[in-house]
Amino acid sequence: MDDRLILMGVIGKPHGVRGQVRVNVFAEDPEALATYTLTDRKGRQFALDWAHENAAWISEVTPKGKRRITDRNEAETLTNVELFIPREALPEVEDEEFYHTDLIGLTARNAAGEEIGRVANVLDYGAGACLELTPGGALIPFTKACVPVVNISGGFVVVSPPDEVEAREEA
């Protein structure tokens, strides 16, 4: 069993006066968050009900049931609360698809099989994902050409950095 918690979103500022909140979602499908019971770092559980894009009603989930937040002041107390789900709750991925969380920590090897670092982070600013390697902080485009092998069970990726990355590191 995989008991890791995966960050799925962060509650933002209140939206309106009746308890709605903005939610910064870190999932491909924001609507999917409404299908999970979300947990914060303190172990509190929440459920979302989308009102419209980026704004949701939020309910606290307790053994007695759900209690919807209906007051702006109470919603303000939830600003910056991180929302997690268990890793095991995520659906299985297709071949050649990966969850960012599964890539972090993998050993990075060059084409000769020599260890050159670890995947410290997966960054995506909209133009495509990049693997951040440590040490050094090199950013490798997460494409088949630059990362031809991803072996989650083996704990490694093979990277073939573009010439621009190698030239920068040598300078």
TrEMBL record:
Subunit structure: Binds ribosomal protein uS19.
Recorded GO CC terms: cytoplasm; ribosome
InterPro entries reported for this sequence: PRC_barrel-like_sf, PRC_RimM, RimM, RimM_N, RimM_N_sf, Transl_B-barrel_sf
Subcellular locations according to the entry: Cytoplasm
Family from the record: Belongs to the RimM family.
Chain's role: An accessory protein needed during the final step in the assembly of 30S ribosomal subunit, possibly for assembly of the head region. Essential for efficient processing of 16S rRNA. May be needed both before and after RbfA during the maturation of 16S rRNA. It has affinity for free ribosomal 30S subunits but not for 70S ribosomes.
Domain Ribosome maturation factor RimM PRC barrel: 101-164
Primary location class: cytoplasm
Key word Cytoplasm present: yes
BP GO annotations: ribosomal small subunit biogenesis; rRNA processing
Comment block on domains: The PRC barrel domain binds ribosomal protein uS19.
RimM N-terminal domain mapped to chain residues: 8-88
Protein name: Ribosome maturation factor RimM
Keywords from the named record: Chaperone, Cytoplasm, Ribosome biogenesis, rRNA processing
Source organism per UniProt: Acidocella aromatica
Gene Ontology terms for molecular function: ribosome binding
